[in-house]
Design goal:
It is a single chain. This protein has a single domain, classed as Cytochrome P450 (Cytochrome p450, Orthogonal Bundle). Helix content is 50%, strand content 10%. The termini are far apart. The protein is of the alpha+beta class. It contains 19 helices and 11 strands. The strands form 3 sheets. Strands 1-2-3-9-6-4 form a 6-stranded mixed β-sheet. Strands 5-11-10 form a 3-stranded antiparallel β-sheet.
């Protein structure tokens, strides 16, 4: 007689979020107090019905249910208000394409982001980070977010296009991206097209920025076709367009779509993560002291980090990881059900919009005790539990996980090591930081700090 006790199937909780406004749904709450609204949802269930404008949608609040959804991209495909809007910007690029075409697109771009290739970008990242922080005058106020946007725009454009963008055009890209991500969020939480056809200043600003981004990409492609080949992402795409790559030939429009997709996803999220890390370090002096101690012991005489230093930048990478947990720039994503299905015990109709939020998952106290506390020690080797690793998903999960996740970690780690090795940033004593304005990304969009010089060993004085 068998004594095996069958495993008890988990019973998921479902509910509906209160506070639905006519026409606008929960759009007002998501716009005015997005993080507070998200953090309130688990009290109503593991799967919670909300309204995006007049449309019904479901927020997944438990990490196991999020993994169930993300590991089944054929049932829960890219789609919903966010990706519908992104598709108008990115076209049919890697981020917005539907599942049937995803594998081939990823196969085309994957080589540029393999670990062996990522190491080749080390000097590029540290060179740009060094140039940014060396330009900061001691004792002066520094527009940190703007500086980080300039840094990540330069890095991303060089990875994609080598040196095709001059300084003026790079600054234009930075400003256009800022306007676009703000406008995309409003169009996601209140998906009513008629509102965004009105000739308001915000709508005109969004359309101008969008048009200019496309013009810049088209000009870079045209210039490359007239000039010499380069071993960069654009070079790979043009070979594929000419039928010379390992995958099926792609169209000129696909070349454009891939570039603008990688540009949008590679610039602002990284800039906000770096600005967030610098802000959090200034508010947590013990973490800052330990970071400085690691850098001073490893980078003798203030040299820039190299590829071989990456395995030894352990605490620096922990700071980056904890920043992504505490203040994840990518905070809200959507999927769409391709057929009638079940999730968390709830039947969802074909076409249902399903959302998940890294911020919500990263701030669940059952996964991360004291979630508001900035604690890089959570990510020291051997510290995170299996449950914490599953709940931590700043780059998503499953087959649609961010293609450049390891490059993003390497870029942020190297940039932070370079900047923190040379400069210390302090919050202005009499300045209150503005409340975070939501966009498709989240972070300190207008951070200003004061710059102080650093010399090796000054962390010892700080600890006295």
């Amino acid at each position: 007689m068998s004594r095996v006790v069958p495993a008890q199937e988990r019973v998921w909780r479902t509910g509906t979020a209160p506070g639905i406004f006519p026409v606008l749904g929960h759009g007002i709450a998501l716009f005015r107090r997005p993080l507070e609204f998200l953090n309130s949802l688990p009290s109503y269930g593991d799967l919670v019905e909300i309204r995006l404008g007049p449309q019904r949608a479901w927020m997944v609040c438990h990490p196991e249910l999020v993994h169930e959804m993300l590991k089944d991209p054929h049932t829960f495909d890219k789609g919903g208000p966010l990706y519908d809007r992104l598709g108008k910007l990115m076209g049919d690029g890697l981020v917005t394409c539907r599942q049937p075409t995803h594998r081939e697109k990823r196969r085309l771009l994957q080589p540029a982001f393999r670990p062996s290739h990522v190491a080749e970008y080390t000097d590029l990242v540290t060179e740009e980070a060094d140039a940014v922080c060396r330009a900061w005058p001691d004792g002066q106020d520094i527009p940190v977010t703007e500086a980080m946007m300039a840094l990540t725009t330069r890095v991303t454009s060089r990875v994609l296009l080598s040196d095709s963008l001059d300084d003026r055009t790079t600054a234009e890209v930075r400003d256009c991206l800022t306007a676009v991500v703000r406008g995309l969020f409003v169009r996601t939480v209140v998906p009513i097209d008629a509102l965004f056809r009105l000739p308001t200043p915000a709508n005109r600003r969004y359309r101008r920025a969008l048009s200019r981004l496309h013009e810049i990409i088209d000009a870079a492609i045209a210039e490359r076709r007239r000039g010499a080949d380069h071993d960069d992402v654009l070079g790979t795409l043009l070979k594929a367009a000419n039928g010379d790559g390992p995958t099926a030939a792609i169209t000129d429009q696909e070349v454009h779509d891939h570039l603008i997709t990688l540009l949008l996803t590679g610039v602002e999220t990284q800039a906000l993560a770096l600005a967030g890390a610098l802000s959090l370090l200034a508010r947590n002096p013990e973490a800052e002291r330990r970071l400085h101690a690691e850098l001073d012991s490893l980078l003798a005489e203030g040299r820039r980090p190299r590829a071989e230093d990456l395995p030894h930048l352990v605490y620096t990478r922990c700071v980056v990881s904890e920043t992504l947990r505490h203040s994840s720039p990518g905070w809200l994503f959507t999927r769409v059900a391709t057929k009638e299905t079940e999730l968390g015990g709830r039947r969802l109709p074909k076409g249902a919009t399903v959302l998940y939020s890294p911020h919500l998952l990263h701030h669940d106290p059952s996964s991360f005790p004291e979630p508001e506390r900035f604690d890089p020690d959570r990510w020291l080797p051997g510290q995170p539990t299996a449950e914490q690793r599953r709940a931590m998903m700043p780059f998503s999960a499953g087959s649609r996980k961010c293609l450049g996740d390891e490059f993003a970690m390497v870029e942020a780690t190297l940039a932070l090591a370079t900047i923190a090795g040379r400069r210390r940033l302090r919050h202005l004593p009499d300045r209150t930081e503005r409340k975070q304005r939501p966009g498709i990304t989240m972070g300190p969009r207008s951070l200003v700090m004061v710059c102080e010089p650093r010399t090796a060993g000054d962390h010892v004085v700080d600890n006295a």
